[in-house]
Predict the structure.
Amino acid sequence: MSKTTDEAPQSRFARLRSTLRLLYHGQSPTAQRFQAAALIVDLAIIVFFILTPLLRENASFLWIDYSIAALLAADLIARALASTDVLRWMRQFPVIIDIFILLTLLAPTWLVNLGFLRIMRLWTLTRSSSFWRPLRKRGLETYQPTVQAVINLLVFLFVVTGFVYTAFANEDSGIAGYVDALYFTVATVTTTGFGDIVLPGTWGKLASIVIMIIGISLFVRLAQSIFRPYKVHFPCPQCGLQKHDPDAVHCKACGHVLNIPDHGHD
């Protein structure tokens, strides 16, 4: 009797993990609806993260903050159960970022100066295959590098804006609010440099230099993804070259015959 009693919870737990695995990684209509709903919730959370500096003084801010913390915690637990190797899953960089974001939500007062990193949730979201599935379903996977480049740039802009607002908002810098910080970030990243807002001191100059260098790199990456010819990811069996033209018959590096699947008719 005791053996049967012990097996029942284990069986239910195994079924729960199997169900979550199907929901998070499956291709069935139910799984796709679940993934679409989760994506919409994630995007709404990201909008809240962007608006956090403007909403922090609102009376309902903490209630919303803890509600989102509960949602994110539930999502992390569910994704952990859906994984085949929990320890390996927890060592993934996007997961580590999500756990850190959860900590900033659970302790918004203690970690207020690091709250600007929450926007990185948008970057971790793009690490999920379900994020790109709508593009693939419509045969628009060629736009994935461009969309990824745009997202990387947006994440960088908002992370830097939050950092500038948190670290340099004072009368000396001319940054009186979040919009001023965003204005300075965009002007610096684009190397426009109007000079009406300047970060004070040596650390301000160093921060501006880093912002310009990384910002230019991201702009170049975005331009490359827009203007360079589209390549498919198909490793050459012989030399390992990762990307080829969609209609390539031979590898450009070694001449090996390729058999690239035609995804346009899936």
Notes: The mean pLDDT is 80. Strands lie at 232-233, 243-244. The longest helix spans residues 29-55.
